[in-house]
Specification:
The protein is mainly α and 116 residues long. The protein has a domain at 22-74. The chain is built from seven helices and two strands. The termini are far apart.
Length: 116
């Protein structure tokens, strides 16, 4: 007979997720706490969003907090990334995908191009 330990995150009497380790369960519970706080912040903001939009935004920001925190501190996340050289085969593919490359540009890069 096998014994299996499961960690279940419960919020307001509802089971949210099951994990194999306590560390994973604690991290998920913390993410939900952050999402709850963000939801309250958005609810009290002057911007009017639907409840569904507030939930989605809150969860997204909480899930991506490692990426969002430097942005909130004023650090450009692109500067932190190390440059990785692309193989020659990928470089050729980007040249012919001109319209796709333009579609994936960030608003900031579009602004820089328009100023030139």
């Amino acid at each position: 007979m096998a014994v299996i330990v499961k960690y279940i995150v419960v919020r307001n009497g509802e089971e949210k997720m099951t994990f194999a380790t306590k560390k994973e369960a604690d991290a998920y519970d913390k993410m939900l706490d952050i999402a709850d706080n963000l939801f309250e912040f958005l609810d009290n903001a002057d911007v009017k969003l639907s409840e569904t939009q507030m939930e989605e935004i809150s969860l997204l920001l909480a899930q991506k907090r490692d990426t969002v925190m430097p942005i909130l501190r004023g650090i450009n996340p692109q500067k932190k990334k190390t440059s990785v050289q692309k193989p020659a085969s990928e470089k050729k593919g980007t040249e012919k995908a001109g319209s796709d490359a333009a579609a994936s540009e960030t608003p900031a890069s579009k602004k820089k191009q328009s100023k030139k």
